[in-house]
Amino acid sequence: MRNTKQLSLLATNTVRHEGPQRLFLSDFLVSLSLRGILGSLYNYCKIGRGSILALILIPLIMGCSDQTEKSSDTEAGYIVNGVLSNSSGETIFLDLLTSTSQIPVDSATLNENGEFSFSGHADNMNFYRVRLSQNNFFNILLDNSERLSITGDAKNLYYTYEVRGSQESNSMFEFNKYIRSFSMTIDSLRNALNKFGGQPNFDSANASINNSYMDLMAGKSDFVKKFIDSHSGSFSLLVAVENLNPQEDVAYYIKVDKDLMAAHPNSEYVRNFHAKIVQFSRLAVGSEAPQLLLNNPNGQTISLSSLRGKVVLIDFWASWCKPCRFENPNVVKIYNEFHDKGFEIYGVSLDRQKQAWVTAIQQDGLEWIHVSDLGFWQSAAVKLYDINSIPQTYLIDEEGIIIAKGLRSPALKAKLTEIFGDA
Predict the structure, then answer these.
(1) Fewer CB within 10 Å: C terminus or N terminus of the chain?
(2) 310-343 b/e with 16+ CB inside 10 Å = b?
(3) For residue range 136-186, what is the model confidence (pLDDT) as tens digits?
(4) What distance in Å separates the CA atoms of residue 26 and residue 317, rounded to the nearest whole number?
């Protein structure tokens, strides 16, 4: 069923934490960060590792051969030839993308015709970034078999570059070409809505544009799934799967894992992806919710398992998370409707300061169970439940089995009505 909840494109509902553990598949492999474009459309507070694949690929350790020197034998390594219009002698860089950073491995000066070339060794398939600056770049796949031809506009690489090469490189470009077109359309929707800001007809415009947005999101999901189905075993699937919801599309994560393990069992990318899929699967619907032992504001330890016999919503939130606070009044209504029927909430705060946590509980009238280790994003519960954005929820049944994830108030009420009947 299509989500009909309105999303105001003007609202800013994303809070990011840029920490030292920031990983590359959210910002490096997706050639243009959708979250940079769509940040106002995501009703989550995010940390730097808060993309979907960051949930899956921690840590990603890549093995590669020495690539700090150009190969003198071009037959034994990759060759990248390119020509860029609107250039003026800039230096262009080739960076290897690692789990935590990008490592320069080559550079060249564009000649008067905008031409450049890179050559080197990459015994294994790796992800690289071609950049003129940190904000003007695109990403490619390279191994020793690659003979790549690149064209583009030096003033705007991402939206103009074209790549011809191996099947892997062509697949990567095919997917990124769709995503950049999608991104431009979303940006146009946001700009269109900006024109209605403060106007009497804003609500109707927001509703109309929201419907267009939801149609686009559904179309993107269909495209990604068809791409995965038709590119079995391609490394580009690591980028494609980033664009699916792991809560709703877990089958596709498992499919990508299976396909890549069959095609590239010795790849460090694939082995680490597989390891994280295994970890991710332990939190799938039907699995037993991991035990939590945390203190309430009075210092009393309350275990999640002590609530067996009740349907429990594990609610990850924080006093500083605006989307969480915005959602709280709706959750209060649902709690009051179903609490007497056997519904409980186990609120896990990612706060750092006790007073801010307690004050938010009082201000929002949250009468359910509250616990925290005041560990912020380093909380043990964050790691245990793979939390990369808040608000985030897990709904568990009377036996402690996960029956739903990521439910916001309308879906939560519908699920509880299904379980308990009308309030």
Answers:
(1) N
(2) bbbbbbbbbbbbebbbebbeebbebbebbeeeeb
(3) 999 999 999 999 999 999 999 999 999 999 889 899 999 999 999 999 999
(4) 22
Q: Give kind and range of the element (H or E) at residue 237.
A: helix 237-240
Place of tokens 């929201």: 210
Length of the chain equals 423
Report which of 299, 271, 320, 284 is spatially closest to residue 396, judged by C-alpha positions.
284
Quick check: 351 and 377 in contact, CB under 8 A?
Answer: no
Is 186 found in the same domain as 129? no
Question: 99 falls in which pLDDT band (50, 70, 90)?
Answer: low
Q: Summarize pLDDT for 389-414 with one digit per residue, the tens.
A: 899 999 999 999 999 998 988 999 99
Q: Which of 253, 281, 309 is the last residue of a domain?
A: 281
pTM (2 d.p.): 0.62
Structural domain span for residue 36: 24-60+173-196+203-281
Cβ burial of 293 (10 Å; 0-12, 13-18, 19+) is: middle
The residue type at 130: V
CB atoms closer than 10 angstroms to residue 80 = 24
